[in-house]
Design goal:
Two copies of one chain form a homodimer. By secondary structure, chain A is α/β, with parallel strands linked by helices. Helices cover about 35% and strands about 25% of the residues of chain A. In chain A, strand 9 (about 240-250) and strand 10 (about 255-265) form a beta hairpin. The interface of A and B includes residues 19, 132 and 284 of A. Strand 12 of chain A pairs antiparallel with strand 12 (about 290-295) of chain B, so a sheet runs across the interface.
């Protein structure tokens, strides 16, 4: 018998309890033992909940109950999640979380504590919602040296970009629809400014490359500057704009990592990923490209990933010590933004083609119907961020669009 | 220290040894111990091999060596693989295989023997080559009730269909190119007649639904009857033809399962899977659709999956008893072919539209440029196989194409 405590009774928390009860029989068969939700921690009252006798408001009740084997943390954020998770692990309880912020900021430390206490810290649901990615990456691709990862990691922004592309809509209008449908929050900044995708690519990069990449080491751009005009130029160029979190092993041994709107060619397996769906492409040195696709968020998909982790945590009686990465205060293994190289799509006005060619050398011009007089758009050869910025300054004119071109 | 024996030194076998040696250090870190290839079994001589001192011709040397913890079976076929695998498991050695025929025909029995002997029988590489699918399906989606699975499971046929679609080529010409490029074998029947895809969907269905589905229970059609004309009609209808292995939980509790060329609409995540790539769509009741994409065959991708299994098998000291399905001589849980329901694309000549409508009721006509006089093509509403066959017989005329329409 494994007793479980669920911290937080919001969307994912209530979904987790629902899935644990709905599929109790088949889950117990898979876990090889009974699974019982003993406590649900929430500061709010749920007098009408069918599980009302399980609610507690004081975390210490859970911490001090030696019967609790697995703690599920689905509160989100760092406080008080971090303290709850840390003390649970120190008390010899395994922890399952969907909290990407916690893993991105405290992952290395919490994994270390878990291993020192011979328990597990699992977080399949923290990236890609219901899409299996953490376990496949660390178990199934363990014979590969990971070369690169690129993902559509945020469903809200992918929905907005899909609306902009399909319906030729401006960013603000698409955001308003996403908010109306509940795909974007009232304060959408964590999604549209890229912070959510940043946390997820940090988790994937840390796992793939073995060293903790912290969010503040990652240059992060959201989609607020993407315009309908950029979308149109990129479609005519044979692809579409997606918000991509990507990390790439470089020849110099460093990791280039960034979150940015990017041009993705039509043939890419990431190009056809639309609406709120997510997809993660992993390139291994022996397996080549592998892509994982599905619903990146939502109550039940995320709860499904949490519960699958709970089943494994309940079964294990020791630490699964391969799920691990080193902490690293020194982030020198992360390539400086200015040195990261890729092609750029550039849209500007107030300069001539001759001037653009003089500064950027060989460029390829893009077209769109009814472009105003004086607007030019072109793609560059791969150049470093610094070189691109320097050349744009030298060129002058009014910069209206700058989208990186990625080859995934 | 875990000592390993590799049975077979063909494409996958030599790749497995290569990956084990190339990535020795990182694999040993993941396995938590040294990994050593002690034996390679092959009847042929490899006098110039760098591993020539490891070769043996007598399986008993391996079987009787208590130091061998993991046996890798990459010979293929049933004989002598089945005997080798069975006796290894009985001797307390874990087995890793890429042999889909063996798993599809003997999986339930071998899993049972593995669990009785507290060892493991792993086969990630048997489906989808380097694509993680077996472990994600049984671990990460364990909280889901699987509703359906549909996959492009054979790279050779997908390459041929891609050539037919892109270059408007006839089947025979596309097959000849595939053979020239080494994508199709000289005797391509196991691929083009669907037997290979059938074995793989049997393995996936057995794992997803918990009961062994045997290949002979599955109606299997290959792609030899698909014509350039069918391809053209289907493109105009907004999709493409793929060889799909699929299994679906029905309302009556039975499993509908089939391998057949199928119309897949453009928006499906399976539609953009081209050339030798594979993709597997899994639909779970809580997670929804999840898709796994990558190289479904090839020396190194397959070897990578084998080696990842070896690492886990080396680490475990007991049976991972959730990877399991029941044997079932009685295949009554598999829906009879005649009762399986789906829409059909039908192309025929010698009948009028009025006659077609009289027999099939509401149909939707398809068009292609330069269709000869008297040819008609249409799609039906979902009907059972029996109903479709009966109606075609009643209608008469010359049937030239009949492709099932799947909604994945």
């Amino acid at each position: 018998m494994a007793k479980i405590a669920v911290l937080g009774h919001g969307v994912v928390g209530s979904g987790t309890v629902e899935v644990l009860l709905k599929s109790k029989q088949s889950l117990e068969k898979k876990a090889g033992q009974e699974l019982e939700v003993k406590y649900i921690l929430d500061l709010r009252d749920f007098p009408d909940s069918p599980y009302k006798d399980k609610f507690v408001k004081n975390f210490d009740v859970i911490l001090n109950d030696p019967e609790v084997k697995v703690v599920v943390e689905v509160i989100g954020g760092i406080n008080p999640s971090y303290e709850y998770v840390k003390s649970s692990l120190l008390a010899g309880k395994s922890v399952v979380t969907s909290n990407k912020e916690l893993v991105a900021v405290k992952g290395a430390e919490l994994l270390k504590i878990a291993h020192e206490n011979n328990v597990n810290f699992f977080f399949e649901a923290s990236v890609g919602g219901g899409i299996p990615i953490i376990r496949p990456l660390h178990q199934c691709l363990s014979a590969d040296k990971i070369i690169g990862i690129a993902g559509i990691l945020n469903g809200t922004t992918n929905y907005i970009l899909t609306k902009m592309i399909r319906d030729n809509m401006a960013f603000g209008d698409a955001l308003a629809i996403a908010q109306k449908l509940g795909y974007a929050e009232r304060d959408p900044s964590a999604d549209i400014e890229g912070a959510d995708a940043c946390r997820k690519i940090c988790i994937l990069a840390s796992l793939a490359f073995g060293k903790h990449v912290y969010p503040e080491s990652v240059h992060t751009e959201g989609i607020t500057k993407v315009t309908a005009e950029d979308v149109e130029y990129c479609e005519n160029f044979g692809g579409s704009i997606k918000l991509i979190g990507w990390a790439q092993r470089q020849d110099n041994g460093k990791i280039a990592i960034m979150v940015c709107p990017a041009f993705i060619r039509e043939e890419s397996q990431l190009a056809g990923v639309n609406d709120v769906f997510n997809a993660i492409l992993v390139c291994g040195d022996t397996t080549g490209d592998v892509v994982f696709y599905g619903k990146g968020a939502g109550k039940l998909p995320t709860a499904s990933a949490v519960v699958a982790d709970v089943v494994i945590a309940a079964k294990l009686n020791s630490s699964s010590n391969t799920l691990y990465w080193e902490d690293s205060e020194n982030q020198d293994f992360v390539e400086k933004k200015e040195n990261i190289v890729c092609g750029h799509y550039i849209r500007l006005s107030g300069v001539t083609k001759a001037q653009a060619e003089q500064v950027f050398g060989s460029v390829k011009y893009l077209v769109r119907a009814n472009a105003p007089e004086g607007e030019i758009a072109f793609t560059t050869e791969p150049i470093s961020e610094k070189e691109c910025a320097d050349k744009l300054e030298q060129l002058g004119g009014e910069l209206m669009g700058n989208i990186r071109i990625l080859d995934y």
